[in-house]
TrEMBL record:
It comes from Pseudomonas taiwanensis SJ9. One of its GO terms (cellular component) is cytosol. It comes from the Bacteria. SUPFAM superfamilies: Riboflavin synthase domain-like. Lumazine-binding repeats lie at residues 1-97, 98-194. The keyword Iron-sulfur does not apply. InterPro entries: ATP_synth_asu-like_sf, Lumazine-bd, Lumazine-bd_dom, Riboflavin_synthase-like_b-brl. Residues 1-97, 98-194 form the Lumazine-binding domain. This is Riboflavin synthase.
Amino acid sequence: MYTGIVQAVRPLLDVTTYPGHNQFTIDLTPELLDELKIGASVSVEGTCLSVTEINGTQVRFDAMTATLERTNLRNFKAGQGVNIERSAKMNAEVGGHLMAGHIATTAEIVELSIKETGAFIKFRMPAEWGKYVFPRGFIGVNGCSLTVADVENNVITINLIPETLRQTTFASYKAGELLNIEVDHQTMVLVDVVERTIKSTLAREMPR
């Protein structure tokens, strides 16, 4: 589990493509390396990946084809920065909201505006996932816990404070690129339960 508070943006040193998976090598800080072991889970741009190798400050992760197809990791290139968060420890402060690192879908950036007066990002969700997003609700975007400002026709608007821009990769993105989206699990369960209840009720009441 993760808290949705990105701990650092770290450089992606290498991307190697193999049949069935890609391997990523990321340079981590001493703080992020503390007690890190093979098999440990790390959030990389919001995607839960397991450590496969540690060589000094260089840490390797594998992403299978299914993960690449569902996330923006398939577009990773050596030299770019990626959001990193170590898995949460018991009794640790949860500064954002609990996240699993299981990406539901990707969303295309419609607009990214960064000005002295403020910053915001707009992205378009696939309709089947947009129904789980509500104004003032939580959403995980590239591993960052964010509050939804507005929802209109599956286009989500999120305001970005300067600290979020400083601590994450958002400023490096541009319109047309993809973001990793993790919807709030509790919201998803509630929406699905309500939908099933309504369908069941209508089915009973409709004349046959």
